[in-house]
């Protein structure tokens, strides 16, 4: 029987500073000692998001390859190993079928060992996934608000705008005029390529694909 530990931090800053990694390892070492176990190998996942399934993480994949029937895996918290309820339940079922014990310290121990612990594991896995969904919704809401207020969200500054000193997108008069001309020509049935040729001749660097993108941001583009 081999005993493996799995620890993870989700940001490079945490990985560089060791934030939470040391805490996780100390918690696992103490737990193992209390249960008469000796950890043979620690898998340290640095700067990897919990949104990735365990098998898609570098150290997670190594752990799944290394573990054998009757082995023990210890992790400090549910969300260090799983964020998706589907991934948690699939991996947990695989471990249970193979006789592999999965210990999660924050859930009180072996979550594959009996019906009650597995029920708790199932519920908390679903809660973790729901929390992740709420975080995504909050991020979408913030971006929607920022976009409505013409705040710069990163990437290329869109045609027709310049970036102001406070991070606000400011309309560029000449390019806004070019956008109005593009919309007029498109309404008259001109092709994207012909519109692009006119815009380039006027001194703007814009391909037909760029014209399509500009117009799509303003109004739907007919195919």
UniProtKB/TrEMBL annotation:
Domain Resolvase/invertase-type recombinase catalytic: 2-150
Residues the record marks as active site: 10
Residue stretches spanning the membrane: none
Domain of life of the organism encoding this protein: Bacteria
Keyword list, A-Z: DNA integration, DNA recombination, DNA-binding
UniProt cross-references to Gene3D superfamilies, sorted A to Z: Putative Large Serine Recombinase, Chain B, Domain 2, Resolvase, N-terminal catalytic domain
Full protein name: Recombinase family protein
């Amino acid at each position: 029987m081999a005993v493996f530990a799995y620890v993870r931090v989700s940001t490079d800053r945490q990985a560089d500073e060791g934030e939470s990694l040391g805490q996780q390892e100390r918690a696992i070492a103490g737990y193992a000692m209390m249960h008469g176990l000796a950890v043979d190998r620690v898998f340290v996942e640095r700067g990897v998001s919990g949104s990735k399934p365990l098998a898609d993480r570098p150290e997670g994949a190594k752990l799944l390859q290394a573990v054998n029937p009757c082995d023990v895996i210890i992790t400090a918290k549910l969300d260090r190993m799983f964020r998706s309820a589907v991934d948690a339940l699939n991996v947990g079922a695989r471990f249970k079928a193979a006789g592999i014990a999965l210990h999660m310290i924050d859930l009180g121990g072996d979550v594959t060992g009996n019906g009650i612990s597995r029920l708790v594991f199932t519920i908390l896995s679903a809660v973790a996934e729901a929390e992740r969904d709420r975080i995504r919704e909050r991020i979408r809401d913030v971006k929607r608000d920022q976009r409505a207020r013409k705040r710069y969200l990163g990437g290329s500054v869109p045609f027709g705008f310049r970036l102001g000193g406070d991070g606000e997108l400011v309309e560029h008069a000449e390019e806004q005029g070019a956008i109005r001309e593009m919309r007029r020509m498109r309404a008259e049935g001109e092709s994207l390529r012909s519109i692009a040729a006119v815009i380039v001749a006027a001194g703007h660097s814009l391909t037909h694909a760029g014209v399509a993108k500009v117009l799509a941001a303003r109004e739907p583009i007919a195919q």
